[in-house]
């Protein structure tokens, strides 16, 4: 999305509606894409914590719903959603 006029981002370096220079935006989006590619490769290699870290970096640069899912998948597979013990902890008040 164009940060000036909020027109849909069409992958060009100049906004088709307002003419704003989107080069920096494209550079950041490409950097996030490369990080997500690396995260997918890390997932395939079984390096789940590394995948989660790469996906989290990508989200800081350029957040997308799919990127959030990738980060969540890496976090789940690496066990970091369940605390350092790797177990789901139930609290008494949650089950009573
Ligand atoms: Zn624009």
- Ligand types: zinc ion
The topology string of helices and strands comes to HHHH
The total of helices stands at 4
Oligomer: single chain
Which regions are unreliable across 5 or more consecutive residues at pLDDT < 50?
A: none
Strand elements, count:
0
Q: Look at the helices and sheets and give the structural class.
A: mainly alpha
CA-atom Rg in angstroms: 18 Å
* Amount of beta strand: under 5%
Distance between the termini: 47 Å
Taken from the alpha-carbon principal axes, the silhouette is elongated
**Average pLDDT for all residues:** 87
Task: Give a quick summary of the entry.
The chain has 4 helices and no strands.
Please give a structural write-up.
By secondary structure, the chain is mainly α. It has a domain of 61 residues. 56% of the residues lie in helices and 0% in strands. Helix 2 runs antiparallel to helix 3. The radius of gyration is 18 Å and the shape is elongated. The mean pLDDT is 87. Zinc ion (ZN) binds next to loops. Zinc ion binds next to loops.
Descriptive tags:
single chain; 96 residues; mainly alpha; 4 helices; 56% helix; binds zinc ion
């Amino acid at each position: 999305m164009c940060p000036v006029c909020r027109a849909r981002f069409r992958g060009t370096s100049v906004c088709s509606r307002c003419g704003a220079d989107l080069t920096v935006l494209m550079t950041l989006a490409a950097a996030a894409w490369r990080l997500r590619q690396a995260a997918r490769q890390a997932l395939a290699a079984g390096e789940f914590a590394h995948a989660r870290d790469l996906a989290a970096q990508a989200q800081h640069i350029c957040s997308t719903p799919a990127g959030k899912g990738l980060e969540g998948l890496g976090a789940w597979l690496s066990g970091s959603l369940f605390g350092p013990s790797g177990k789901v902890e139930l609290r008494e008040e949650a089950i009573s």
